[in-house]
Amino acid sequence: MDTGNSTVVTEFILLGLTQSQGAQILLFVLVSMFYLIILPGNVLIILTIRSDPGLNAPLYFFLGNLAFLDASYSFIVAPRMLVDFFSEKKVISYNCCITQLFFLHFLGVGEMFLLVVMAFDRYIAICRPLHYATVMSPRVCYALLLALWLGGFAHSIVQVALILHLPFCGPNQLDNFFCDVPQVIKLACTDTFVVELLMVSNSGLLTLLYFLGLLASYAVILCRVKGHSSEGKSKAISTCTTHIIIVFLMFGPAIFIYTRPFRVFPADKVVALFHTVIFPLLNPVIYTLRNQEVKASMKKLLCKHRVF
């Protein structure tokens, strides 16, 4: 095999979450139960929004896309992780590793863009209600949706392009249960300072700016809500509070992982587990549990198709 500038390493060995067999079995049971219960909930949210004409507002259009993105995101890591719990040697090929990394950032950044779009939607609805129908027309909603997919794709392509130029010719053990930028970069057979700096700027700084911008936008929205009627104020505060919870769940772990130098911290794997498996499935569910319209429509859908 040519060892010049080509990739010598053809596979990576994943060290996994833990080496304890008992802990692996416990995690398998917990993650499987969570996965099998919450994932159908996301599918139900999508079906409910699509089947109820009363939920054709932009808010619910974006919520349905959030559920779709989160459900898709959960398929990137969780299924393979569950299989690897019972594998003696957790091996992933170089190509599969790059593919996993690509979709992780593609869907992850797409969801971040979507949260920005949802914040913009709430700002227009609450602060510019007379212009809402014009600004958030179906055409604009689809254009924003296309923009978030293109933005996620562009970001992910940059991540992958930077890694593909790195030579891998020695160690191939990834101290994680999936492939991600920080762990893969450490295995490169070259000085990676510039690449790490670019990665932190492209992922970490971008994530932090989005997070701070979203918090600032919701602070403005909540300040504007003060002048509304008590009923409208209560509904707006409830919606914004839910969005803020989702923003913290999505951006908090990402900031922890990508905004610091690529050093190992004891909590890295736990944060990564919540970031890639737990939180994505919870986000739409948290929103739905706090939204009376979606809950009522969901109950109607379940009653309609109930088999006696």
From TrEMBL:
The chain crosses the membrane at residues 25-47, 59-78, 98-120, 140-164, 205-225, 237-258, 270-289. Keywords: Cell membrane, G-protein coupled receptor, Membrane, Olfaction, Receptor, Sensory transduction, Transducer, Transmembrane, Transmembrane helix. One of its GO terms (molecular function) is olfactory receptor activity. GO terms for cellular component: plasma membrane. It is found in: Cell membrane; Membrane. Coiled coil: none annotated. It is a multi-pass membrane protein. It comes from the Eukaryota. PROSITE patterns: G_PROTEIN_RECEP_F1_1, G_PROTEIN_RECEP_F1_2. Residues 41-287 form the G-protein coupled receptors family 1 profile domain. InterPro entries: GPCR_Rhodpsn, GPCR_Rhodpsn_7TM, Olfact_rcpt, Olfactory_Receptors. Gene3D superfamilies: Rhodopsin 7-helix transmembrane proteins. Belongs to the G-protein coupled receptor 1 family. This is Olfactory receptor. The gene is LOC101976987.
